[in-house]
Amino acid sequence: MRRARSVTSSGPCRARSTTSGCSRRSTSGAGGTMPTTTITIPFLATGPTPPTKANAEGPNTLRTRVSELVEKMGPPPWSRRVIADERNLVTLIANRPGGGNRPHWHADFDEWWVVMAGEFRWELTGGVVVEARKDDIVWVPRGTVHHIKTVGTENSLRLAVAMPPATHYFSPCEQCGYDDEGPREWNA
User: Shortest CA distance to 7 belongs to which of 46, 42, 39?
Assistant: First the structure.
């Protein structure tokens, strides 16, 4: 592997080892211009390389047995990060019927999910509603408020794919009016 020439880490990556796959993201933009985000990849492969980042306890195991993880985590609600690198944050999320997330949006990445169990309702900006069930994939573009609810009578399980640092900007839900007094910004 080849080391990138100028690598710095910030936030939660600073405490990790230099082989953790953390990246540095910087956002720029001034005046009326659209901000941009730059991703620095700290290590580049120069050819075929055996996996060195595998972690037996996760995140970043070479294989995650979802059924074993669900059993280990117990009854919902819970979430567990299964992959974390410079481009991906992949989280397995379980909820009870009626459970879900706080409505929020992301400025610099699109988010998507694989529905693994149960039924969901995504309430989106502009009055758009997406109903999804097992084996569906749901994609939400950046800037779109999404409020996810588990509907029906079964527990739900979804695999969420985001991009570090996955900053969440909380916003009321247009459809149901959900709002709270929690923090307005949060990194996953």
Answer: 42
Q: Are 187 and 169 in contact (CB under 8 A)?
A: no
User: Which residues, other chains included, contact 172 with Cβ-Cβ below 8 Å and sequence gap of 6+?
Assistant: 103, 145, 178, 179
Q: What percent of the chain stands above pLDDT 90?
A: 54
Neighbours of 51 (CB within 10 A): 7
Exposure b/e, 96-126, CB count within 10 A at least 16 = b: eeebbbbbbbbebbebebbbbbbbbbbbbbe
Domain 66-187 - what CATH class?
mainly beta
> What residue spans define the domains of the chain?
2-44, 66-187
Write out the two tokens for 120: 């969901």
Max Cα–Cα distance, the chain, nearest Å: 53
| Cα-based distances in Å from 50 to 1, 77, 88, 101, 162 | 10, 36, 20, 38, 25
Q: Which of 3-17, 44-58, 170-184 has the least mean pLDDT?
A: 3-17
Q: How confident is residue 2, by pLDDT bands cut at 50, 70 and 90?
A: very low
- Predicted confidence (pLDDT) per residue in 95-142, tens digit: 999 999 989 999 999 999 999 999 999 999 999 999 999 999 999 999
Long-range contacts of 9-12 (CB under 8 A, 24+ apart): 9/42, 11/165, 11/187, 12/165, 12/187
